[in-house]
Amino acid sequence: DVKVTQSSRYLVKRTGEKVFLECVQDMDHENMFWYRQDPGLGLRLIYFSYDVKMKEKGDIPEGYSVSREKKERFSLILESASTNQTSMYLCASSISGTYDAVKFGAGTRLSVL
Amino acid sequence: ELKVEQNPLFLSMQEGKNYTIYCNYSTTSDRLYWYRQDPGKSLESLFVLLSNGAVKQEGRLMASLDTKARLSTLHITAAVHDLSATYFCAVDGDYKLSFGAGTTVTVRA
C-alpha cells in the first residue's frame, strides 16, 4: 500500500522564518500535491507537480514555493512565514494516467507565532 | 475556477436513521471522489465515481453521480456511531482535485 510520509506532524515557527515541509512517497507516483486545510474552507491546492523539476501553481500559491528534485520527494517552502499561514498542510500523491484516488499523508500542523 | 459546494456543513444524525450529503460543482467533470477524515487524521478515500450514473456502495454508505446536474450524493443508511467523521467530496478538473468544505457528521444515540 502506498505511503505518503510527511516529515513532521507538528511544527511551531516564528514570523519571518523560512520553513520547509517535506513529503516523500514510496510508490513511484508521478503526481504530487500540497494542500492546506482550514476549518470551513476544505482543502485548497497550493502547488502541484507532475514530474521531477516540474511545478504548477494551484489556487493559493502566494507566499509559498516548492521543490521537486527527486520523483519521490516534494517540498513545500514558506519563504517568510506569517501568522496567516498557520494551518494544517497535507501532501498527496497519485499515479499518472489513471483515475485512482489521490493518497494523502498524515498532515503537518504548522503554527506560526 | 472549479467550485465545489457541500451541504450541509454540519449534520447531527440519530442512530438508525437515514441521511444524505449533497455535493454540487460548477463545471463539467466526470470524475468525483468522496473522502472521510477522522479527527486528527488524514483523508481516507471512500469512493471513486467516474461516469454519469455511477453508483458505489460500501456498508452503510452509498455514493452516486449525476454529471448532467453536476451533483453527487452520499447517502447514509441506518447511521451508527462509527460513521462520525468529516466527509469531503472532491471533483477532478485537469487532473487536480478541488474539494468541498466538508460535512462534519456526528451520530448520537
List keywords for this structure.
heterodimer, A: about 110 residues, mainly beta, seven-stranded mixed β-sheet, three-stranded antiparallel β-sheet, 12 strands, about 50% strand, B: about 110 residues, six-stranded mixed β-sheet, five-stranded antiparallel β-sheet, 11 strands, about 60% strand
Structural notes for this entry:
The complex is a heterodimer of chains A (113) and B (109). By secondary structure, chain A is mostly beta strands. Chain A contains no helices and twelve strands. In chain A, strands 2, 5, 6, 7, 10, 11 and 12 form a seven-stranded mixed β-sheet that branches. Chain A has a three-stranded antiparallel β-sheet with strand order 3-9-8, with no helix packed on it. The radius of gyration of chain A is 13 Å and the shape is globular. By secondary structure, chain B is an all-beta fold. Chain B is built from no helices and eleven strands. In chain B, the strands form two sheets. In chain B, strands 2, 4, 5, 9, 10 and 11 form a six-stranded mixed β-sheet that branches. Chain B is globular. Chain B starts with a strand and ends with a strand. The mean pLDDT of chain B is 93. The A-B interface holds A 31, 33, 35, 40-45, 48, 50, 58-59, 90, 99-107 and B 1, 4, 6, 9, 31, 33, 35, 41-43, 45, 48, 50, 88, 90, 92, 95-102.
Overall 3D geometry of chain A? globular
The averaged pLDDT of chain A comes out at: 93
pLDDT average of chain B, as an integer?
Answer: 93
Subunit organisation of the chains? heterodimer
**Poorly predicted parts of chain A:** none
Strand content of chain A: over 45%
Low-pLDDT residue spans of chain B: none
- Characterize the largest beta sheet of chain A: strand count, sense, and whether it forms a barrel: 7 strands, mixed
Largest sheet of chain B: 6 strands, mixed
Strand content bin of chain B: over 45%
Distance from N terminus to C terminus of chain B (CA atoms, Å) equals 41 Å
Number of contiguous helices of chain B: 0
